[in-house]
Design brief:
The chain has helices at residues 2-17, 40-49, 60-74, 105-112, 117-130, 178-182, 225-234, 274-281, 306-313; strands at 76-77, 114-115, 135-140, 143-150, 153-158, 163-164, 211-214, 219-223, 247-248, 268-271, 296-299. By secondary structure, it is of the alpha+beta class. It has a domain at 39-197 and 236-258: Roll (C8orf32 fold). The longest helix has 16 residues, at 2-17. It starts with a helix and ends in a 5-residue tail after the last helix.
């Protein structure tokens, strides 16, 4: 009892001495709260422990599938966010200037959630390394692919276009490297078995204009225009004279802390859109580029909005 009282006393003292960004964690399958993913280690924990039907988490292959699914659920394909990285240069996402792109994986996860294929896969480095693997990006025809070194070999997947390339038509098969994909005339894309989720993986098959495709292994039913385009035009060897399917290493990083501690008298403000920081700080323009409605929330001395707190708690805290 004395130990418990002492612990409670110390915890209360610490709480009164400093407050910060209140983070909630729930057991909701799709809205787990920011605390569930506020560090790379917590991301890895969520990747490995989210319910995925009969899919396990013990083998490298199953863990890779889980990482693929998590990223596909938390990231979308749009212009890459641009920040003030170069003096005198105005951020312009449409310019796709790699020197202005924000490659901070944690900031992207919490502030954007979108980017072009190369940005997405560069940021993946942080989470892949947390899983214990190394990775690299690969040049493709009009795309940037992604490989992870799992179980003694490079394995290609694309969380932008949602593809895993099975080495055989089996739910237990491992996955091909990019070199294997582009060197095989059916691109290993004519197979998309159920990996334990209870449904077949879409395999870049979500953009409409569906038609049967006369593949190498037989007719592949109901393939979208996007799938057919990738099969015929993207998953191809780039000529050596044009640089080949070159390799890119180590661009992504994690520098922005999501967990915040405040000293007495300090306040914490989270802006959910660039217009929030512009208006509150009187800036000439946004210091980063994003999207969404203009909202801001100021928290001082742990004072979250009751509506936000109750909404998160309604899903059940853990």
């Amino acid at each position: 009892m004395l130990t418990l009282a002492l612990s409670l006393s110390l915890s209360l003292s610490a709480l009164l001495a400093q407050t910060g960004d209140p983070q909630l964690q729930t057991d909701h399958p799709y809205y787990p709260g920011e605390r569930a993913m506020s560090t790379p280690a917590r991301v890895a924990n969520r990747v490995l422990n989210t319910a995925r039907g009969t899919l396990g988490n013990a083998t490298g292959r199953d863990r890779m599938i889980r990482l693929f699914l998590w990223r596909a659920e938390t990231f979308s394909h749009q212009y890459s966010p641009a920040v003030y990285n170069l003096p005198g240069v105005q951020p312009n996402p449409g310019a796709d200037n790699p020197l202005m792109i924000d490659y901070d994986a944690m900031r992207a996860l919490f502030s954007y959630g979108f980017g072009l294929c190369g940005t997405n896969h560069a940021q993946m480095r942080v989470f892949t390394e947390e899983m214990g693997w190394t990775d690299r990006r690969r040049a493709l025809m009009g795309d940037t692919g992604y490989e992870v070194y799992v179980d003694g070999g490079w394995r290609y997947f694309n969380t932008d276009q949602y593809t895993l390339h099975f080495l055989s038509n089996s739910s237990a098969a491992h996955f091909a490297s990019l070199d294997q994909v582009i060197g095989t005339n059916h691109r290993y894309a004519e197979w998309n078995p159920d990996v334990g989720l209870g449904y077949l993986l879409p395999q870049a098959n979500t953009h409409g204009s569906y038609a049967d495709f006369a593949g190498v292994t037989g007719t592949v039913a109901n393939r979208s225009l996007q799938w057919r385009d990738y099969y015929q035009n993207v998953w191809q060897p780039i000529p050596a004279a044009s640089g080949g399917n070159y390799k890119m290493y180590g661009e992504g990083y994690a520098a922005t802390p999501i967990v915040t501690r405040l000293r007495r008298g300090e306040t914490f403000t989270r802006w959910y859109a660039p217009t929030g920081v512009v208006g509150d700080l009187g800036l000439a323009g946004p210091i980063w580029w994003g999207s969404g409605s203009a909202r801001s929330t100021t928290r001082a001395g742990f004072a979250p909005k009751p509506t936000s707190l109750s909404k998160a708690l309604s899903h059940g805290t853990t």
